[in-house]
Fold Xylose isomerase.
Amino acid sequence: MSTGFFDGIDRVRYEGPDSDSPLAYRHYDPDEIVMGKRMEDHLRFAVAWWHSFAWEGGDPFGGPTFERPWHPQDDMGRARMKADVAFEMFEILGQPFYCWHDVDLRPEQGNFADNLSTLEEITDYLGEKMQGTGTRLLWGTANMFSHRRWMSGAATNPDPDVFAFAAATVKGCMDATHKLGGQNYVLWGGREGYETLLNTDMGAEMDHMGRFLSMVVEYKHKIGFDGTILVEPKPQEPSKHQYDFDVATCIGFLRKYGLEGEVKLNIEQGHAILAGHSFEHELALAAAEGMLGSIDMNRNDYQSGWDTDQFPNNVPEVALAYYHVLKAGGFTTGGTNFDAKLRRQSLDAEDLIAAHVGAMDVCARGLKAAAAMLEDGGLEAALAERYAGWQRPEAQAMLDSDLAAIQARVLDEGINPAPRSGRQERLENYVNRFV
């Protein structure tokens, strides 16, 4: 049944590259076979509940600009209306998945018991909606950064009562995710860090964070949750420094606390940029260490030093991202979540549909380019050639040798290597053939 919010907007369909419709897929054909798999099953698109439905259009210098029928989001009637609109949009887009934070779904009650009760109520309602549409839950998570109780962190808070409130909150969110058949559970430590070292015991906070994550893994197994536990790297904003700074930091953290076999990473393009990396760097590193789980696909404005969460529109960047995803074997429980929001001047319901349509087309083009590069094999051949010397027996033996023996070999054989070109420009030209 129509909510009226998207009146006049029909279901978006694939019409091909020559379509001039502003609300049609030109490149995203869910049934197109790419490397032996349906495009929809490769990309596993998800809508972010927070940015698409809960965000009101504010920024650090101004208040809300969106006037939605479910604003203010302060009672369960409006929460159900928001869910009705969300599932109508999923149907319009043909969206296979969605994601949520607990506070996106239900109003803040000010105490844990009522927060839990309203979360259970609204997720029961979501379960009913899911049965009628086929849209599934990619992942759930807890917002433990917005309310003032979290101002000094959640798992890393100096107050043990806040730690307890956080643990209780995560249990409730994991239960809700499990109930809805979620395929992952994400922890993003928005304020798990510090503002100043003058009042911070960094060692204690990281130990508490490590124990908290261990409890999450233990509870996953206790309830028989088959999904993946994911953590999401982010360097700063809102905290001056966050303990989950980037992929490398997260991997080191997981290994320190013996969780590297239990937890994978949810990697966001915007967070990679804030950390001083490229998206492909973060994806390639996670893949190399067997910890690539899922992605948040968005972009930052390169003229801005903060997390602008814009929908993706750069096909070459997206192609290189999916190149590393495909090279790693593709998603299993993970997918492509659009952790992206409209610009605060984009007020219309149609803007919300158009943003997702354009982003899905960009990802489809990127996926096909990535698949074409892999099938062509040019990058892999160049890589194999560059490292071919390491396949020689004497090179492999050197890794089990010692410095003295290696020096003796260099002297004995008169080794004096000449530099070899990295051929970067030729490889960049190669990539541009596909995008």
User: Anything to note?
Assistant: Residues 388-432 form one domain. The longest strand covers residues 136-141. The chain has a mean pLDDT of 96. The radius of gyration is 24 Å.
